[in-house]
Amino acid sequence: MPIITGTADPAAHGFRIRRWTALPIIAVFLWLDHFHLDLFRAVAGDWSGAARTWALVLLGYLPHWIVALGVAALLTRPGHAAHALGLDGRPLRALLLGLLLTAPMALGLALEAPLTLDADTPHTLMRHAVLPGFGEELLYRGLLFGLLFRIAGWGFVPAALTGALLFGAAHLSQGGSAVEAAGIFAITALGGVWFAWLYVEWDFDLWVPVAFHVLMNAWWVVFPVADNALGPLWTVGLRLLVIALSVGVTLAYARRRGGRRIRGRHWFWIRARSSAMY
């Protein structure tokens, strides 16, 4: 695992800054984001149940997971790919944190919407919570934001905004009107910045934003209140409450650790150091 040397920038978390990598990182991301579900849609467009779920895993998400790991390996070292993408963290800690802090959202939804379970619910949860929750975090936070921040030397603001704007744009098609599309864009773009901040401040542990993303999607599935990412205004309040709780807990964790990772110039620029080696 890479370590931070005495002169390495702590925000880079032990990786040498190479500015030129920004272009290939963005190019690979755009290619994956645009085309990675095409084969799945062509083969399994009208499938249902377990067949559709497995097709989504094998044809939709697995190829882009492999490419993401490959890019990380090329830009770092083969043995460091999982670390570069934040996959070597603590998934159980992340799950417990996510369950605790998304509980108010689950409770709020449960008070307004009936628990909806049927024979296809496990597959629905896989297709609409587990797979997109993990897949989008790996693609948007691990690959795009994470590598721009940790390897290309972008500061948090430009790297997070790039990922957030693209994340919001990817959800625009859910809107039935211009106003609804704008609301969906705003709430998902905010989520993109939030997930990126959690990723960094929890020591580049991608499982933390994965847990929040998966669980919040899962509550939306089992307590359905809307067929898109916006929902009624009160559901926006529930999500803002989860964000506020997570910010408080994360800042407390950062103080216990010795300080926030994003501070000073790290918000806008990571300084390259020739001695910041693996």
UniProtKB/TrEMBL annotation:
The keyword Membrane applies. GO terms for molecular function: hydrolase activity. The chain crosses the membrane at residues 20-42, 54-75, 95-117, 138-161, 181-199, 232-254. InterPro entries: CAAX_protease (IPR052710), Rce1/LyrA-like_dom (IPR003675). It comes from the Bacteria. Its EC number is 3.4.-.-. Keywords: Hydrolase, Membrane, Transmembrane, Transmembrane helix. Residues 125-218 form the CAAX prenyl protease 2/Lysostaphin resistance protein A-like domain. This is CPBP family intramembrane glutamic endopeptidase. It comes from Luteimonas flava.
